[in-house]
Design goal:
Order of helices and strands: HHHHEEEEEEEEEEHHEEHHH
CATH architecture of the largest domain: Sandwich
CATH topology of the largest domain: Immunoglobulin-like
Strand order of the largest sheet: 3-2-1-5-8
Oligomer: single chain
Helix content: 25-40%
Radius of gyration: 28 Å
Bound molecules: dinuclear copper ion
Amino acid sequence: MSRLKKLWRLLPLLAVMTFLLTGCGDPTLSALQPKGPVASEQLFLMKLSLFIMVFVVIVVFAIYVYVLIRFRKREGDNSIPKQVEGSHVLEIIWTVVPILLLLVLAVPTVSYTFKHSTNYNKDKAAVHVKVTAHQFWWQFEYPDLGIATAQQLVVPKDKIIAFELISADVSHAFWVPSLGGKVDTNPGISNTLYLQADEIATFQGRCTELCGASHALMNFTVESKSQADFDSWVAKMKAPATVPATAQKGEELFKENCMSCHAVTANGPGVAPNLKGFADRDTLAGILEHTPEKMALWIHNPQEQKPGNKMPAFGKSAGGKLDDAQINDIVQYLQTLK
Ligand code: CUA
């Protein structure tokens, strides 16, 4: 088979790869579709370095091909070509051009690196969020507002969100590709980061440090709201819960079985996710659909949904002590946690 034919056979593979790679662009989880200034500046740096690399490759290959053809050995010509060793002109060209290219890359990279490490944690105009990573969930505390939530970070649009990040157990890493990042969360040492959302939307976040059996399931979301909607969310989080009569049985069961870890208060403690406002969240445990069926499934045996997490199974057939009716009562109560 001719060489050309062999290459031709690779074409379908290339076509399939093109389709697969274009599928990577989920708009809520893509550093290539920035939705905030930090992410936009980081994308600019990616494009700049890509442009410089492509430019170098094209120029070098063009010269290479030109030299290969123009100065090839011709029949009957046995003369020694002109020797360029020690040519000052050439030495200067191939030293100065890379230096200039590196400067073009280095100046914006260094300046954005410093800009993006600005610590806004003392800035009164920023919204402060303390992020604590746990195996395998995220806790978001707002120390200035006296509230805490989990799995779904809520932020006002167009405002700098100043994060202080730490881990309660092993190392994790916090990343919201649409808004920028990412940064490690370590036990005992806090890191800082700031992000800002330009749009009212929900973005996806991921843990990007291998942290155990359910590392790949340690997802969270970031919901950006208008300032007015954010303020009313804060007020709602602080308002005392009202439990309808139909959910009181579930509340009793919840108090007996769940309250040693989960809180349902504005700024509940962080052994397990604070469930105040749980009914308004988009996902369950960051990965499951927010439906009564999935909630029951989760309480029955959370290890099946997210292996290695710290919540024990409550369903009788999974070794727990609650029957299906009791689990359903708890689910009914959870749905009232607005
Ligand atoms: Cu937490 Cu990976």
